[in-house]
Amino acid sequence: xxxxxxxxxxxxxxxxxxxxxxxxxxxxxxxxxxxxxxxxxxxxxxxxxxxxxxxxxxxxxxxxxxxxxxxxxxxxxxxxxxxxxxxxxxxxxxxxxxxxxxxxxxxxxxxxxxxxxxxxxxxxxxxxxxxxxxxxxxxxxxxxxxxxxxxxxxxxxxxxxxxxxxxxxxx
Length: 171
Fold this sequence. Notes:
This protein is mainly β. It contains two helices and nine strands.
């Protein structure tokens, strides 16, 4: 279980300069996967099946508007997240992944990810596979739902210290 602070934007067309920024980053990775989201009536709780895990995300507090930089504003949410292994041999788990339940929605994602953290008072990039004590995960994704293509850009702060993003990173 861990806490995060997140800000995310959704939009239709791809943003070429963001793609190029990721292409030039050391330690950025590309991932393609399908996550299955449980349709719920409570916007403060999210449940998904991802890569053999069950993940639960609970919004705590109130959404707040704030600035990331002089040119970038958004709405911040605080979350508590849980993640645990699912029994992939369970027939019900397989049925959900095979689309046999309308209450589970498959979302195909093509993601670009990198972690930012501080080393010797400098902001550096790290692969998302590296365990770092605090930082910010940066994500740019193309998502497919019901034949529609959307894009999303998100920042997710984690750990005991809030990483202050350099102005040149978020301009």
